[in-house]
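Here is one chain, start to finish.
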Amino acid sequence: MKVALAVWNGRISPVFDVSRQLQIMDVEDGRVINCVTVHFANDHPVHKVQRLLDMEVDILLCGAVSRQMAAILDSYGIRRQDFIAGDIREVVDAYIRGALPSAEMSMPGCFSGRNRRRAKNRKGKRQK
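Its structure:
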């Protein structure tokens, strides 16, 4: 399985849409067997998704993702675990152990058991 992590300064990039670096890992039998770093030439959503497709990425681990980017990723069948935060090594370890999503590695305010933000109604109150 090919796993991509959006990287910034050794951590998960806070916003995938503007990230410029990926760490691509081949994961087999609970181990990372190969790892490479790749860079995006620009921020255009189609360019980023095409790069993921070219690298045959199965799943993207990242921070926040715009609705537009999420829709494009979904339409091409690239799974994602978003709203992740933390040191790359710790995130990789948690992914390998099957421990994602987790409250400890979620962006602040983004963990609700399924690693998604709860929707707000029109009056700004949180829905249950």
